[in-house]
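During the second year of the project, the team shifted from modelling isolated chains to modelling whole assemblies. The rationale, set out in the original proposal, was that interfaces cannot be judged from single-chain predictions alone. As a representative example for this report, we include one of the complexes processed in the last quarter. Its constituent sequences, exactly as entered into the pipeline, are reproduced here:
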Amino acid sequence: MNEYIKSLKNQGKLNISIDKEKTFNWKYTKIAGPCSVEGPEIIDIAKKIKSLGANAFRAGAYKPCTYPVLKETNGWKEGLREEGLDLLRRVKEETNIPIVTEVMDPRMISKVGEVADVFQIGTRNFQNYTLLDELGKTNKPILLKRGTWATIDEILGACERILVGGNDNIAICLRGVVGMPNYRHVFPTIRWAPDLMMIPALKELTNIPIIYDPSHSTGYRNFVKPISNAALAAGADGLIIECHPNPDESISDPAQAIDYSTLNNIFNG
Amino acid sequence: MNEYIKSLKNQGKLNISIDKEKTFNWKYTKIAGPCSVEGPEIIDIAKKIKSLGANAFRAGAYKPCTYPVLKETNGWKEGLREEGLDLLRRVKEETNIPIVTEVMDPRMISKVGEVADVFQIGTRNFQNYTLLDELGKTNKPILLKRGTWATIDEILGACERILVGGNDNIAICLRGVVGMPNYRHVFPTIRWAPDLMMIPALKELTNIPIIYDPSHSTGYRNFVKPISNAALAAGADGLIIECHPNPDESISDPAQAIDYSTLNNIFNG
Amino acid sequence: MNEYIKSLKNQGKLNISIDKEKTFNWKYTKIAGPCSVEGPEIIDIAKKIKSLGANAFRAGAYKPCTYPVLKETNGWKEGLREEGLDLLRRVKEETNIPIVTEVMDPRMISKVGEVADVFQIGTRNFQNYTLLDELGKTNKPILLKRGTWATIDEILGACERILVGGNDNIAICLRGVVGMPNYRHVFPTIRWAPDLMMIPALKELTNIPIIYDPSHSTGYRNFVKPISNAALAAGADGLIIECHPNPDESISDPAQAIDYSTLNNIFNG
Amino acid sequence: MNEYIKSLKNQGKLNISIDKEKTFNWKYTKIAGPCSVEGPEIIDIAKKIKSLGANAFRAGAYKPCTYPVLKETNGWKEGLREEGLDLLRRVKEETNIPIVTEVMDPRMISKVGEVADVFQIGTRNFQNYTLLDELGKTNKPILLKRGTWATIDEILGACERILVGGNDNIAICLRGVVGMPNYRHVFPTIRWAPDLMMIPALKELTNIPIIYDPSHSTGYRNFVKPISNAALAAGADGLIIECHPNPDESISDPAQAIDYSTLNNIFNG
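Output from the structure prediction step:
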């Protein structure tokens, strides 16, 4: 153990061993679904995705975009929002699949919590500390997405912030980061790069489960399968994948969404 | 104008020209102060810093850290919080210097707004969209700190989010980013790197004022003066600098805080 | 195919399909050995490593370091140099294992070529064009290490430079790159990060074999096995791994060298 | 002085103080010229650039490109090569301005040295150690361009490698690096980013002169002036700038070349 780690432990840090028996069954680790809820067809999508082996379903009722969306289209404006939550509630009723969906603000915890089985903290809110603090006071499972900038310290610190609130029912969702020599021109949709080394790095320091997101790691659907395989080979506990019946027509992030056949190939291939 | 910019403009984006006549007097651009309010001596510190030429005063009543601070020391636990706000109120009463301080949560806007002349959005909350939305509904000046990961799109998008709420009284605070070939071992306190090219890049697209933060760009006090000079030479409208009467004793970020003499040298040298 | 790729192809670029039948048998893809030849014990090391399943042996007779080594120790000064080549010749005589070793200068090609079955181009010489040009005129297999900075364009360009010389007997060795949010303090020996997405990215554009180097990707021996597994899962054709009988006593790069038992575990586990 | 620096100094490293009295007059610090020699008009270009205040002239006779250039056009194929050297000789005869030009291979030192007053080591050859070794044995001034990946250790190590050969007549040319959150789409020609913090960082450890290259830092001509100003403000000793009579028609790197008027503005504005 190096001096830095020792000094953190002496300060009472990094004792982030969780009791896996008591947590969400992270054997539920094949999470899939579209980027956001786009309409009532979400129910059929969920049925299909469950049939392909997913044991949890992801879809954003709230879907933050880089630029604010100024005009609502068929009810969608950075998500269907409340209508999206209603549709996710119906998904749950009809399929009984656990729902993973984003909560963006402490004031939304109660409402989103009526539908979500797992609260997703989005990458932009990775260090939204008042949100982390409030989620630490709940007892619902948390999927904490890594910020695209996060050092290993910052990941451990964000986890600890939730844990000290009393909720140790968490998993870390690793995803692409900024900074690497780029792929521009050749693969223009790539905005981030996977950082798969973070998997063994975290495994050396904590037993918090790690779910890998190949979609937001690659930005390009052809790479989703090889990076999924790589993440599991490196020790990830599970995957969360964006899948859409017609990927190119996905309202958000179409370039990275995969179709049912590719999902089937990843989950069962 | 390239195709991408054109397409954004056609979508009604990037029309982010503000009316500088109506905004906070960003000629108030020599902002300085300690990282956080540490106690009642903040009043004398503010007097001194004002005497050195600062025309706004910065100090966090709320000071988020990488790891949660588990134990309060003399009232300080990631800031003095409410007590810190009270002290900033006294600073304002006694010195009449405008106060720049961080607001971390929509629920704190009203309370922090009683003291702050400028709301600072911290780097971790750069894409905390519900916070940006709520601040867009106020009419108080906003200093939006760049996230350490932010691309130019993300900076423009975050600004637009505040502007569409109705508040165009904003300035962008540029600071260090992650990702560059590193300085580790040789300069071990460096965690980020300045990205001064963002100054002319933003100037080409928007007239939003740019305040440069050399302290959180360098992480090392010896580099604060040359990077301050460089930022102004590249076109920045102003500076925000961490200054402490005894830099090495600063509770947070001691390695980057400068002393009064260096501040004097930067502001008047 | 995107516009950029199309335009490259129209210029006669990116037609970098090689005839695998005619190339070095890159089924020889379990390459292992110490960072550099340190002395006559290299022969026993090679025998042991061959017995663990390696089908090629790596060791530098010439071993460039970040700072020049000013004093020779037991003949070693950035490698044993000519003496190192002599020892590698004995390794080949006694074990019959193919030798992969670095050539740093066009003027050394002939001498190194007497021993090397595969010329390794080191990361620092990834864009040493006169070296690439000269190696393109040989017909010996080339293992081209990625520069720590290389974009996908630069990798393809460096390959093409060798190919146009007439030698299409090449493989790309991917290794760690600079730029990602860092692991400093927590894992202080890490200097680079793996970029495993480059594997499927290159596979989409070329059939040149890809050998992955987990040692120079991680800088820390505990991560060598998970990253080896990940690279193969992502589609790499083979591995090149630093292995030393007493890793901590390795003259160069001790933190990333693995022992025999770990190598056995990776090759046969 | 930190532990790492101390240990380097104890090993005899980092004593890289040069005798400025004995070196090339790096007051010759306004270097400008086109990316490469394109034809006989280079003589008029040099006259004009000298008249604008440049005290050294840059132009590549050898101009390495990312992809090999397969077809010669009017004699140009990654430079005019020998013909380019002849033209630079004429530039010198007619203008008496010192010539800065790249040498790519130890075998070219003698030939290039007949024309060059300063040997430029290109960014791709920043760690081409046999080239550095040979140049260390000459007594001609060296302009060492930073590799786009180089950490501060690597810069110091590369300098030391030349110095230990006996030649302390060197300057470091800083230029853009890979890795930062990117500018893609919005400013598509940007391939690197300036790292101006390296200026004060090197100044703290060595007195080797620093020449800043804003052209290869920004990749976009509009940013050349603000980054030039910033580099000088941060402490750079001089500038090296790409300037072309008709920038958009420059054979290589047109997007970053500036015209005479902008150069005049930077040198005399």
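The mean pLDDT of chain A is 92. The beta strands of chain A are 30-33, 56-58, 99-102, 118-121, 142-145, 170-174, 210-212, 238-242.
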